[in-house]
Structure prediction request, 1432 residues.
Amino acid sequence: MPGSGEQQQQQVASEGVVGGERCYMFPDTRTAVLRGHTRSASHGAAALPFGLQSRTAASPHEELGSSGSIASRPSALKKGHQRAFSHGQIEPGSSGLTRGHARVGSRTEFILPPGHRDEPPPPRPRADSVHFKPGHSRQASRSESIYTLRNQPPPKWTDKMFFWRRRPEDDTARKVRVVVPNHTVPAGTPAKQHPNHVYPGNEVRTTKYTMLSFLPKNLFEQFHRVANLYFLFIVLLNWFPAINAFGKEIAMIPVAFVLGVTAVKDAFEDRRRHNSDKRINNSTCRVYNSVQERYVKTLWKNLRAGDLVHLSNNEFIPADVLVLRTSDEHGLCYIDTCNLDGETNLKQRNVIRGFAEKQSTFEASQFRSNIEVDPPTTKIYRFHGTVVHESGERVPVGTDNLLLRECVLKNTDFVEGMVVYAGHETKAMLNNGGPRYKRSQLERAMNRDVVWCVVILVVLCIIGAIGCKLWLASFTSPDFLPPFITNYYSPSYEAVLTFWTYVIILQVMIPLSLYVTIEMTKILQVFHIHNDPHLYDEERKKRVECRALNITEELGQVQYIFSDKTGTLTENKMIFRRCTIDGIDYNHPPIAEMQNLRPGVATPIHPNARLQDEIQALERGMRLSTDSNLSSRTLKSTHEQRVQEFFILLALCNTVVVAKHPHHDSMNASGVIESPSVITVEVQSNSSAPTTTATKYSRLNESRSVTPSPTSSTRPRLLELSGGQSSLSPICSSSESTPLGTPSPKPVRRLANLLRVVRPGGKHGSSPAVTPSPSGEKKPIYEAESPDELALVDAAYTYNCRLLKRVASTALILVPGEGMVEYELVQVLPFDSSRKSMSVVVRHPVTKQLTLYTKGADSSILSQLAPTDDPAMQQFIFNTQQHLNAYARQGLRVLVMAKRNLSEAEFDAWHVLHKEAEMMHDHERRIRESFCRLETNLILLGATGIEDRLQDGVPETIAALIEAGIVVWVLTGDKQETAINIAYSAKLFSPQMELLKLAARSKDAAESTITAYLQDIERQLPRGSNLTSNPLASLADLPPHYPKRALVVDGKTLTYILDQRSNLKKPFLTLTRFCSSVLCCRATPLQKAYIVKVVKEILKVRTLAIGDGANDVSMIQTADIGVGISGQEGMQAVMASDFALSRFKYLERFLLVHGHWCYDRLARMVLYFLYKNATFVFLIFWYQIYCGFSGAVMMDQMYLMLYNLVFTSLPPIAIGVYDQDAPADLLLSKPALYKQGRLGSVYKPHSFWLTMADSLYQSIVMFFITAAAYSDSTVDIWEFGTSLTSTCMFVNLLHVAVEIKSWTIIHILSMACSIVGFYCFAFVYNSFCVSCFGLPSTYWVIYKTLGNSVYWFTTVVASVLALLPRFVIKVLRSSLAPNDVTKSLLEHRNIRRGEEFLVAWSSNTSSSSVLRSNESRQKTLKPGSQLPEVIA
Prediction:
């Protein structure tokens, strides 16, 4: 039918179909834009039609599907979850496909974004008119910041106001900056005419203020608080003569005090930031100077984009630098990115393409190429640019060519490069975030109660205004006007003025100083948590780090914990435990002595005896072949070949760096080239501890020209081996990647030359790369990008397959059965989390055979094995799968090893297509697909099982957290069997728990499984409970005999559950509420974050997320509390967290002790603060009954203003910082006591009203008892007011005494300082201030008041009667219905008293027994004999 093909093609394109599978479209509200959501062609960037583009990218040997998709590796994605053009947009105006938003590298399918709906797309234009545009992509590397869920920040109000100054978003996004080498610009060029003048300098400033901007900016920030604005309004209101209640100066005291304290704190913090900036900016580096034609010493702050810098080994990188030259002949260098992303392993960087051959001839003055780069972004491992040479040639550059600021140059003599980003445009500064400020649940409740305080204040003011009007209306006679009113108009007018007067005099009802007190209290709490000796890690020398200063009380209210597994629950000490080769399992029992090993370092292993015998047989075969002039390969069996190639793969398929020769740079720190005779080497003995810098950017103590070395020759530093046996000692490591040693003054030939020997009878007469193993070698020091790689290389070394040298193009290894072999590294296929594999293509130096060695996850490798009909191979694969399942059940991390022999034609054909993929704009996806095409038709070699042991204290910690009522979720990317085994070991699961598993492969299957589990739960519940339909149901609502359950769910099932259209989230969360713990396997980083988000929002619970890697960042930032483990996966999780711990076991004390204390202290402190303010306000209000509601006050204005700010300010802080309702050992022994904070039982919504009722009662008792005591006396208003003030203070302090749970010297001092401070101020103020600030005189009032016996009687009686109800209720509650903490505390005290009694009784009875024994013996002795001495 004519046109049917075209119509079908348009239909396929409109529905986003790849390989016949339908994709989801995402509507755009701005324009009629289509969005696909597929993975086969992320960001579509080639200006080619669909069919042509697919055919161009596909291999000639591959077939095309109906839609033109590449028939490569089978996708793990099911229908509805495959992505061909990730969010690709087709604009009607341009008929082009705009780059959208792709996410790659997830371990399972990526979850759909919230709010996704499937809508019919508009008709798509013809395929032959479609072209691609650049856009935005994300690569899920292990340490990239894309794991963070970023929300687009709202536009600033300045941008909204000055809208004409805004640039179009598309223009700024597509802008490309050109950086010109500064030495090519004439020296006298004006600054504004310099081509790089638009780019900022390298000086950084993290301070918020300057000397001029501090006062206005700080006040502007403080007045963002509504409470501060309210009190500013009160101050301004008091300046109106008609309604002023206080002196103008006195009214400013509260606001000035609060603003001043906050300003001092802000200034102190900003001063610390200024000192840090100054230290960093004054660091030095070497910059090329065109006038002097050499590198000169320059401060970091004077560095600019376009400068050429010279860096030496162990030197910090001052800016983002593009590598042009290195000391390595292949143009390689290594950096330590620990200060940036926390990764502790070295990263390899290369010079730009075409410069590797010019390393020996490169001159800085001759470099005149411009560099085009993208605008600066926060993505650490995302960089694109182009070097434009004078000839017009354009060379692309990427992340592998960029050195980032704050990294350290390692294992490289020197590097020269050009600055492309400086100062605040560097990725380090763009990712630099300060402390995080969150609002806790207690703070939200407090703000709600402050609003109620405002309501109470308004009600009191209205009542006072009405009373004023009624009192004034009683004066009906025009001849008799109300007294004390000069300008009387009408009762209504006076009532309005009185209303505002009441607002002024009752302002204390709004607790302005409460915010300052809470802030100071939390700072002190953080200080004590940081200095807790029980949370100090002696091994790592680390303490608890509190990055968020305002959510300490939230630690005591955690209900859900979401934890990563690897590195968080485990030690990251990789132990090579098992391996299977040719279907045979080889066990390696662990070594007990591993306490002194550094995490991240491969542990020593016991070699398997059988495997050792097989390796020795290979060695004997090599010697036999050498003696008989036969090829060793002809004598090896199939099993021996697989054993040999298995260990060759372990030694070659990695990114391990071997320690090199002494690093020295002929250029010193000032840029002067020194002669070799001047160069000296500073030696540090191996026994000495490595020195650490005092600060991050302090300069090195040794000369810049020479760095410590690992060896005495150009050969790597080695450890002695005894008798040729495999070394069982751990790999030596130090804090520096360059080990220390003593260099040898004698020149030594290269290792490859030393190993060249002539093989008799060889085909070529001699082999430059194959030699027998030299005797007496030592073990090299390895640096790997992951502990797994280190463990594998170390295991290979144990079995005499030793990696001795590795450069960009070759790797020298000692092969069992062949001797020294220098393999050519033809192609390295790096690991990514999408393929879940890593490969290397090598060429054997003798046979010239190309071999692809691959290692990766079982799900990736086993599916790519070549089909076979050989029964032996099928049995081999079956046995390997059985061993993998057994390894997983033991909790081991499994990797499968395979290979593929390649012909030159096959590799050349693949290499041509791979080079084309590298040149395309969407090269990342194309390269990944190219790797997948090569990693097919594999031949299985074996598999490994590596143990990552649990950290000390993890099982006990998780058990305590579950006992505390906290629901623990573990989110991991491991296999289900491995994760379940770890869960049992960590006591996340117990044998008594019923294990529920969700492993569905469709949405319907997931729904039916969840429904079946919920129905089964409901059948076991009491009739009529209907708890499964209640979204807030939990384990607390279940009967005691209810069986405990645990849930296991895999990543594919999570994909269906978290889909917006599946409506499975609420049933799934309902199921989880009936489980004590949940385990999510094969979860992606963004799935982790989305799970936390869903649980937090739907269940309305307080969540805590804890992790140690970059893939945990999004989860940590999504949770209410984020905790980072400063482990071996880096510091990126720590930098994104609110709190940082060194080990998971410290979480128990961190939450159960400090969290419990912080919540209990702050809750009681806030209630007390509201109580004392309200009591003071009610006293003033009761006086209005006696003064005609005129707004007069009976207290001196200084007392009124200083009462809350000074006189009663210390006791609340003492409660909030030092009070303990239970000792730490009791809270740890009974984790169930954490329920008090988890349920928020201390500060409930009705607690505020009970506190207000108590304040109302106490104010009535104090006021009317005092009024009755002075009713028939001639006391004046000031003496009456002074008596009330002091009585109120005593009642408030006695109230504190009732509330204090544990008395310390600090509590006593706070109360004593309050009393002494009040009376000292009163004596001084009433003695010298006759007429101060225009206030009414209260001269000598305090003396007269204290001399009256009625004052003392009133104070005692009012205090007793005011506190009697609270005291009685507290006693009755503790005796008749004590809470869990009180019960446990009483039991704890009784046990301690019993132990003390037993100890005393035991010592007393022992003494009495000795005495009685001596007396009896004395009676039996003959007269004149003496009693022997009793030695105590």
Notes: The chain has a mean pLDDT of 75. The longest strand covers residues 819-832. The CA atoms of residues 1165 and 1212 lie 5 Å apart.
